Amino acid sequence: PGTYRPYDLGQEMGIWVNNSDGVTPAVGKAWPPRDSVFPDYTNPRTVEWWTQMCLEFKDVLDYDGIWIDMNEPSNFLRGQYPGCAVNDINNPPYIPSISDRSLAQKTLCPDSKTYLGEHYNTHSLFGWSQTAPTFQAAQQATGKRAFVLSRSTFIGSGKHGGHWLGDNFSQWKDMHQSIIGILEFNLFGIPYIGADICGFNYNTTYELCLRWMQLGSFCPFSRNHN
């Protein structure tokens, strides 16, 4: 507090995803060196805050577009501090075969509160609800057609942004699967789509990277991110 304007203004405006009490902000861990809070983009006030931050950042760095990442929302913990309560929302009768068999794994507790309700019901909308205001803010800041990429998407995301297929591996099967992913996202209405060419994890090889660059030249969104 007092050293980081995005946090101070967000705290003042009350725009964070909250704990199950609906009052105290959910605190987790991401790339910043200490702890992280999570903007609730389903809250109209968050859109005001985000637009203001994007406009101010344009004076710091003269950007052309905005890349929004980690917006599942991603959290390095299983739920926020001090962990998730034992209840039916956090531990429903059926859980998909996902990492660690926990809905809170690498994200927030399902009983966290957002403007529209419990995180259990709004989790998949986090990236979607961030993409449209980012598009509007970037367009307002640059005065040009906005360029926005989002890692988390939902139905309708393609109207305001593109997508990449996330952290893949430098393996031939991942290059093969990227073709499937790109075609699928065209069916989902997100035509500006591509993979991390040459792979994101592991070291690539000359032959793999050469072939993937050749394939990547045909992808709508083409980026070597090895």
Topology:
Layout: H1 5-13, H2 44-60, E1 66-68, E2 113-114, E3 117-118, H3 119-122, H4 126-142, E4 148-150, E5 163-164, H5 172-187, E6 193-194, E7 196-197, H6 206-216, E8 223-224
Parallel strand pairs: 1-4, 5-6, 7-8
Antiparallel strand pairs: 2-3
Keywords: Glycosidase, Hydrolase, Signal
Domain Glycoside hydrolase family 31 TIM barrel: 3-226
Pfam families: Glyco_hydro_31_2nd
The largest sheet has its strands arranged as 1-4
Shape: globular
Cα-to-Cα separation, first versus last residue? 36 Å
N-to-C series of helices and strands: HHEEEHHEEHEEHE
Q: How can the largest sheet be summarized?
A: 2 strands, parallel
Name the CATH superfamily classification.
Glycosidases
- In total, the number of strands is 8
The level of helicity is 25-40%
The low-confidence parts are none
Structural class: mainly alpha
Structural domains: how many: 1
What is the CA-based Rg, rounded? Answer: 19 Å
